[in-house]
Design brief:
Number of helices of chain A: 12
Helix content of chain B: 40-55%
Shape of chain A: elongated
Strand order of the largest sheet of chain B: 1-2-3-4-5-6-7-8
Number of strands of chain B: 8
CATH topology of chain B: TIM Barrel
Radius of gyration of chain B: 18 Å
CATH architecture of chain B: Alpha-Beta Barrel
CATH superfamily of chain B: Metal-dependent hydrolases
Mean pLDDT of chain B: 96
Structural class of chain A: mainly alpha
Strand content of chain A: under 5%
Largest sheet of chain A: none
Mean pLDDT of chain A: 96
Largest sheet of chain B: 8 strands, parallel
Order of helices and strands of chain A: HHHHHHHHHHHH
Number of strands of chain A: 0
Radius of gyration of chain A: 19 Å
Order of helices and strands of chain B: EHEHHEHEHEHEHEHEHHH
Helix content of chain A: 55-70%
Oligomer: heterodimer
Largest interface: A-B, 26 and 24 residues
Strand content of chain B: 5-15%
Chain lengths: 217, 294
């Protein structure tokens, strides 16, 4: 598992040699992940990477199944630093630390944390962060968790998963973008979508196609 | 006719809204304690928010002749935050005793999670001990099931339905809410939730007993004038003036007066406006001539 932090750090060093002194300082500060210096590093990553910030990144072969093509170099940098922090932190503090980093993040930081949640060791431990993310009203943040991300279907308990799907319908985020949706369409999820369809009809409002998709799957 | 908006989040509204509300005849409001659009991360953030409902916001309303009451509670979304929930519940034992508080709320479910249920049940007990009615938020997702579960929790707790206002009802939930003996609130929104025309239909079908309307205006797309607009829509549909007054003035007063925290007779008297007054050195004015009523 410590390999992941190293693999990502190598990638960052190769892709942004000019960032090295900043990155190495942040890497060193990973021993105090809730301290201001480390958190400031996470926050300032896009500006530090400059033009490279939004560059697409080719998946490192060792992590190919876990990463996604839409991740940017900023996401990789933040993931590398958080993975390094978890290496140095007692396991019992992992979940609360990631939750705090998420809650104290502005939108861009929250997006990075959510996209890369599945990279963290024993990812099922970070469901609270995912559930908290589902309370957002910021579409970018919600999409970061729910779209093109294996985390939702792989680790969310039934209630949270169903509510995330219903929220996608409410936020007009296409449910087709939810990885692993179909195997998790249960009678209960269909019941929720059916009740919602009935509610829309009673209100004389159109029924979203996504709701019908779930009902008739 | 004086009007009452018993569910409106004025912290997110400007003084233009207050002026428009006053001009439209709104004489009293209840601002429920809720979340701020994204999760709070410290117990202290809740405390400062509670204080602002009791202080600055009540003062702002008074500057426009509007009587401001509030509810105190840990809302369903943030009930899921284990790190703050106990601390906020402890604060609430104090804050429900403050002047201006007329109910425990908004409480209830958001996702219908176990954490939400526990916090909901604890706040029902809090209300019982404080002698306050409760204001219930029903979920926007899985609303019908969430409302059924809500009613079940209240029954299990043996909490009086006449002291319970179940809010955000729609066509699918209103029958069950009324059958339970609880009061039924409806939030009238421009594009989502309930609208004036559908509310008129519901009133024509169910009458005015225990029916309440509000704007639930907040930071999202919403309209602080929905109560007068709904009153007007009912008028145009031929609903009797007496029924409109029941829904938009007498019912919210009757419900919240059960708190015994205000005298209903007070609300029939206009609030004198003196905009020369300051709150902790702050004025609502920015260069305008102050309005004074006496």
């Amino acid at each position: 598992m410590s390999d992941r932090a190293t693999v990502l750090a190598e990638l960052v060093r190769q892709r942004c040699p000019e960032c090295s002194s900043w990155f190495e300082r942040a890497w060193a500060n990973a021993s105090a992940p809730l301290g201001m210096s480390f958190r400031a590093a996470l926050a300032s990553a896009p500006r530090r990477l400059g033009a490279r910030a939004s560059e697409p990144v080719e998946a490192p072969p060792a992590l190919a199944s876990l990463v996604r093509p839409h991740w940017t170099l900023v996401d990789y940098v933040r993931a590398a630093l958080v993975l390094r922090a978890l290496e140095l932190l007692p396991a019992g503090e992992h979940a609360t630390t990631v939750l705090k980093l998420f809650e104290a993040g502005e939108i861009g930081e929250q997006v990075s944390v959510l996209r890369t949640l599945g990279l963290l060791p024993e990812p099922e431990r970070f469901v609270q962060t995912g559930l908290q993310a589902c309370r957002t009203n910021a579409k970018d943040v919600f999409e970061a968790l729910v779209c093109e991300n294996p985390y939702l279907a792989a680790y969310f308990p039934e209630l949270g998963f169903n509510q995330a799907v219903m929220k996608a319908i409410f936020m007009e985020v296409s449910v087709r973008r939810i990885e692993g949706l179909e195997p998790r369409i249960t009678p209960e999820l269909k019941r929720m979508a059916t009740d919602y369809t009935s509610e829309r009809r009673a209100a004389g409002r159109p029924v979203p196609e996504d709701a019908s998709y779930i009902v008739s799957y | 006719m004086k009007l009452f908006d018993p569910h409106i989040h004025m912290t997110s509204r400007t003084t233009d809204d207050y002026q428009a509300m006053a001009d439209a005849g709104i004489a009293a409001i209840v601002e429920p304690a809720f979340w701020l659009g994204q999760p709070r991360t410290h117990v202290g953030t809740f405390e400062d928010y509670f204080l602002s409902l009791l202080g600055w916001e009540r003062f702002r309303a008074s500057q426009f002749g509007i009587r401001h009451f509030c509810t105190m509670g840990l809302n369903p979304k943030e009930a899921n935050n284990d790190a703050v929930a106990d601390g906020v519940l402890e604060l609430l034992e104090l804050y429900v005793e403050k002047d201006g508080v007329v109910a425990v709320g908004e409480i209830g479910y958001d996702d219908v999670s176990p954490a939400e249920e526990k916090v909901f049940q604890r706040q029902i007990e809090l209300a019982r001990e404080a002698g306050l009615p409760i204001l219930i938020h029903t979920p926007h997702r899985d609303k019908k099931r969430g409302t059924e579960r809500t009613i079940a929790v209240i029954k299990e707790a043996g909490f009086p339905p006449e002291l319970t206002l179940i809010d955000h009802n729609n066509e699918e939930t209103l029958q069950a809410t009324l059958d339970s003996g609880c009061w039924a609130g409806h939030s009238i929104y421009p594009k989502t939730k309930m609208d004036e025309a559908r509310m008129v239909t519901l009133v024509q079908r169910f009458g005015s007993e225990r029916i309440i309307v509000n704007s639930a205006a907040d930071w999202g797309v919403s309209d602080p004038l929905k109560v007068p607009k709904t009153a007007q829509a009912m008028r145009e549909a031929g609903i009797a003036e007496a029924s409109i007054e029941t829904i938009c003035w007498k019912n919210p007063i009757a419900f919240f007066a059960q708190s015994k925290r205000f005298d209903p007779a007070e609300l029939e008297r206009p609030l004198d406006v003196d905009q020369r007054r300051l709150f902790e050195g702050n004025s609502v004015l920015r260069g305008q001539a102050p309005r004074t009523d006496s």
